């Protein structure tokens, strides 16, 4: 009987040790971030999107002016075609079609220019966001920080694990700090130009 109690006690102690290891192994400190919300509410992303919108509108106005001029030239050519003859009308139509193709290529070129410029900038911002999340995780002692949103890797998590607002605050504070530094750089550059 004593032997069986000793064996039972030993087995219980062994199981307790195994349970402690399981608790330690599963006792990771985790959190998640709603990446879609970060992208929507990040002041740096909003600023970048606003700049892209302004540049798109500027390019659009330039293109619209050329399209309107082409429409006027088409209307003018139709009016002159009867007076100048079919040969002139055919040459004029070829010239206008060439200009129309050039406008199409210009529009594609502008879209590519916007994509190249702002795509790279956006990729840089996304990279910086990932860096801030990594630094945040280290600073707060998290073992894992998961992402949700468009490319969800979490199907369910308690709201108490959501650190999106904390990270968003750090991102926006960093952006505000760098935005204040940029005008100072521009003022210095302008002062140097005046010399």
Describe this structure in words.
The protein has a two-stranded parallel ribbon. It has helices at 2-26, 35-41, 43-84, 86-140, 164-194; strands at 30-34, 144-148. It is built from 5 helices and 2 strands, in the order αβαααβα. It is mainly alpha-helical and 195 residues long. Residues 1-25 and 188-195 have low confidence and may be disordered. Helix 2 (35-41) runs parallel beside helix 5 and helix 3 (43-84) packs antiparallel against helix 4. It is elongated. It starts with a helix and ends with a helix.
Write a concise synopsis of the structure shown.
With 195 residues, the chain is mainly alpha-helical.
Terminal CA distance reads: 100 Å
Low-confidence stretches: 1-25, 188-195
- In round numbers, the mean pLDDT is 78
Let me know the number of strands: 2
Portion in helices: over 70%
Largest beta sheet, briefly? 2 strands, parallel
* Cα Rg: 32 Å
Spatial shape: elongated
Elements, N to C (H/E): HEHHHEH
Biggest sheet strand line-up: 1-2
Q: Helical stretch count?
A: 5
Strand content: 5-15%
- Alpha-beta content class: mainly alpha
């Amino acid at each position: 009987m004593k032997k069986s109690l000793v064996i039972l006690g030993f087995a219980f102690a062994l199981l307790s040790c195994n349970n402690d290891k399981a608790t330690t192994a599963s006792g990771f400190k985790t959190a998640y971030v709603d990446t879609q919300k970060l992208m929507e509410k990040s002041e740096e992303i909003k600023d970048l999107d606003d700049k892209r919108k302004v540049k798109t509108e500027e390019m659009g106005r330039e293109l619209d002016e050329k399209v309107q001029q082409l429409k006027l030239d088409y209307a003018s050519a139709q009016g002159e075609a009867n007076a100048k003859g079919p040969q002139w009308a055919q040459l004029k139509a070829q010239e206008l079609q060439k200009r129309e193709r050039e406008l199409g290529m210009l529009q594609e070129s502008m879209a590519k220019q916007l994509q190249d410029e702002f795509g790279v900038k956006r990729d840089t911002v996304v990279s910086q966001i990932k860096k801030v999340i990594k630094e945040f995780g280290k600073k707060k002692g998290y073992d894992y920080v998961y992402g949700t949103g468009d490319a969800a890797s979490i199907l369910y998590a308690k709201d108490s694990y959501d650190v999106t607002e904390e990270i968003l605050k750090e991102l926006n504070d960093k952006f505000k700090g760098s935005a204040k530094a940029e005008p100072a750089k521009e003022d210095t550059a302008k002062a140097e130009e005046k010399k």
